[in-house]
Specification:
Helix 1 runs antiparallel to helix 2 and helix 2 packs across helix 3. The chain contains five helices and no strands. Helix content is 68%, strand content 0%. The chain has 129 residues and is mostly helical.
Amino acid sequence: IAATRELPARERFASMLHAWLAHLPTILPVARALEAATITGDEGAAVYQERMEQWRRAVGSAVRALASAGELRPDWNPEEATDWVWAHTPPSVDHPLRLERGWAQERVAARVVDGLCRELLSPPPPRTS
């Protein structure tokens, strides 16, 4: 995710999401246990909340870059767009499709990234010939 910071805003946003989504299958078992701790008040809740706040800060940085580049749709402000992306990318985001419906991880990631980009990014300017 850190490597995406040098990319142009649109590419950074999509690449950051793809990197996160590619990482989720690796961390899902531990993340789900920590997430459960937040529900039950057990040990691990603080760790989960800290990791999710780190992810939210990474999202916020990419979204602010979109806004600075004029790439964020005008009906979104950076704070709400950050919240929207963060809420749509928890560690369990791919569980129903990947583990229950058999989707490939790459397909899930492509759909999540495409959907978030369509919702948040201004349409690219038309190409001139």
